[in-house]
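Per-record layout

source: Allotamlana fucoidanivorans
name: Molybdopterin molybdenumtransferase
length: 391
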Amino acid sequence: MISISEAISIVKQHGKPLLKTTIKPIEKAGGYKLAEDVISPINMPPFRQSAMDGYALNLHDNLSYQLIGEVKAGDTHQPVLQKGDAVRIFTGAPVPETANAVMMQEKVINAGTKITIDHQLDLEHNIRPLGEQVKAGTVALKKDTKLTPAAIGFLTSLGISTVMVYKKPTIAIVTTGNELIEPGQHLDYGKIYESNSKMLLSALYQLKYYDVTIFKVEDDYKKTVAQLNTVINTNDLVLITGGISVGDYDFVGKALNELQVKELFYKVKQKPGKPLFYGKKHHTHVFALPGNPAAALSCFYIYVYITLQKMMHHHQTELPKTKAISASNFIKRGDRPQFLKGIFDGDCVDILDGQNSSMLQTFALANALVLVPAEIETIEIKDLVDVILLP
């Protein structure tokens, strides 16, 4: 059994960026990372552009100008201004080549065919120059840039419709247990509704991982070996729930051994989630999570999350952490560090009741995990505690 810090270190060490790439339509590329530099095909802006509503001027020594026309956003005509001429202009409109400054409308007196400005202007005042943001043929966004909504908007403004990005991992969720049935079926005595697969699927969807397939396997050794062999050979990440303990019908550990999955660790000194397995076969990461739902989800956020971040070339691999003032008393039993479900309000954290690893109702209300180290036995109100912020 290893410590939490040792387990996290091992997961980080073995997490590698996926190098497979794909072409994505720009509107579906959010959250991906660029697999190559994006070169701008145009200047942005593609013409000298008015920064505000006002008047474009061909400057001269007088404060009065002859008004000769108007240019709106989207206009393609080019009025020719002589010295002392002006045109009405609007934000985003192309500035005529013969204009060399724009005066905002609030500082102009309009007398019909003539206008008067209240002070002299510098050349190019209130004019966005050609290629101010980016010039044609230069790098608009570098390789490994994460495509945020702003990045998507920027690339779209350059006329870019597709981008090459790193592929997200293919993921398999495998549930084990003869006691599990699907919601909607009659709940016979001794059966329970299977929730881990939908829970993990939702956690992955929340993080924008959509290439996920769910498999169910009975408590049968040969069937377990066959199913795990298939998913390990066809996915980048495999999440198994249940069957990793040492009961007579827990076949996952034996099956992984037969399939020659390299064990990187098994069992972590923590609560919940002690019977956690992490291993690899070739490029595929395999996590065998505890069957208890709250334990499985805790392990997902503490360990699986890191692997997902590593695969997607992200530098921040762990969930954000902070310190908070405890709004609750808590007595820890046993010598294992413990992850407690809590509600964090920005300053204080309320440790919730119902911390059992089989209970999800408490987790359903939580937005944070409170890490209680091994050496801490009690938490009192106003104690400073370590908080992990959930997505």
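summary: The chain has a mean pLDDT of 94. The first strand starts at residue 21 and ends at 25.
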